[in-house]
Amino acid sequence: MDISTLLNLINYIFVLIFGIIVSFYFADIRLEDNHKLFIYTTLTFALFQAVCYLLLGQNVLYKSYPFLIHIPLILVIRFVCHKNIYISSIAVLSAYLMCTPRKWFGTAAAYIFKDIPMISDIVTIIITIPLIFIVIKYISPYIIRLKNESKTIISMFFLLPLTYYILEYAFTVYTDLLYRGEAVVIEFMDSFIVILYFILSTVILALLNKKNTAERENIILLAAAAQAEKEIAQLSDYQKQAAIYRHDLRHHMNFIQSCLNDNSYAQAQDYIREICTSLNNSQITRYCANEAVNLILSSYIAKADKYNITTQVSVTAANLADYKPTDLCSLFANALENAINACKLVQTAKTSINNSYSSISDTASDYGEVNSNRIITVKVFDKNNKLCINITNTYAVEPVFVNNTPVSDKAGHGIGIRSIISVIEKYNGVYDFFTEDGLFYFQ
């Protein structure tokens, strides 16, 4: 075996070592945790490659590399290391792509030192080890993060090394079209690369926009949840303060009497006004055993009363304690806020429920004589051990639905619906929005 053949064989071994180590690291399989796997895999593939090199020759081995080395290595990562097929394929194909700098240095050395034989193989062998450390330290962390990305991101990334792999073998291994500078290759390569880059850039921009939108909505939903928690705490404080006022009624009366005796009428009026305000703020109706639900329903029913909206509330559910108070508050607050906003636009009139509502026996038909056409009903009950919520309201403006979900084209609107859906999906629930006989239904 002459020196040229020996260097060629050593170069193949170094390529193999580079490919196996980098592939494993790209698949998040580290040497320090898998010594035996690295050693056994490298020795097995090296022995197999050496036998193929000696029996089949360099040319056959070169053209058969995908079937003899790359595909088996993908299968090892997939079934021995239990990585999914996308990550396994990306790891091996990306490792192949990272071999390209070795060729650059070898080609550059051969061009500069034309009089030194075998300089290309010598340089590519020498550059292999430092290149492994560079790729592992600076590139592998980003490839490893792909396992946390969506299938769409992984698939798009998979296209990059796969495209290079196909073009490399099509134009340099199985044919020499690239080296001959054929027009078909020149025309194809530049346009294909530009189109691929354009497509990938478009998809990435769309994904980034979707991700940014989701992050903004998440921030808004978190703010809404914090606001809901704040409202519950505030209502609870009002209730406690009212309880204190009622408990200390005798002391209040004595203080007022003292003010009157001293002719301090303004002070007495201010004190009475303060007590009345506190009591009005704390008018909590007990709809059920869940204090948070009582607080939020009382708050929004009081708000509905200010707009002359007739309300009917029935809460018979027994499993409300299974849900976080902030989630219940967010759901009821947003649903009732939307219902109140819709009812506010309805023309008020003293009327009886007309025939258009008579078919809805469990909602508006129970009212009889009402003070307006503005109606909201709330029913919370158990069915098959599941919490069921049914909120209906009249409306003046026909709702617009997209994918069976009401939408609004006004800036800042629509967050309430997304917040409601977010809470329902959190508990693996189902929901429906629809209109029927002049009523808007949320179930």
What is the N-to-C succession of helices and strands?
Answer: HHHHHHHHHHHHHEHEEEEEEHEE
Record field, number of beta strands: 9
Any idea of the CATH class of the largest domain? Answer: Alpha Beta
| Category from helices, strands and their pairing | alpha+beta
CATH superfamily of the largest domain: Histidine kinase-like ATPase, C-terminal domain
| Helicity, as a percent range | 55-70%
The end-to-end span amounts to 82 Å
**Annotated CATH topology of the largest domain:** Heat Shock Protein 90
Any low-confidence stretches, pLDDT <50, length ≥5? 350-371
Short précis:
This protein has 443 residues and is of the alpha+beta class.
Structure write-up:
This protein has helices at about 5-25, 35-55, 60-80, 85-100, 100-110, 120-140, 140-145, 150-175, 175-180, 185-245, 250-260, 265-280, 290-305, 325-345, 415-425, and strands spanning about 310-315, 350, 370, 375-385, 385-395, 400, 405, 435, 440. It is α+β, with helices and mostly antiparallel strands and about 450 residues long. A 5-stranded mixed sheet has the order 1-4-5-9-8, covered by helices on one side. A hairpin with a 2-residue loop joins strand 6 and strand 7 (about 405). Helix 5 packs antiparallel against helix 6 (about 120-140) and helix 11 (about 250-260) runs antiparallel to helix 12. Residues about 350-370 have low confidence and may be disordered.
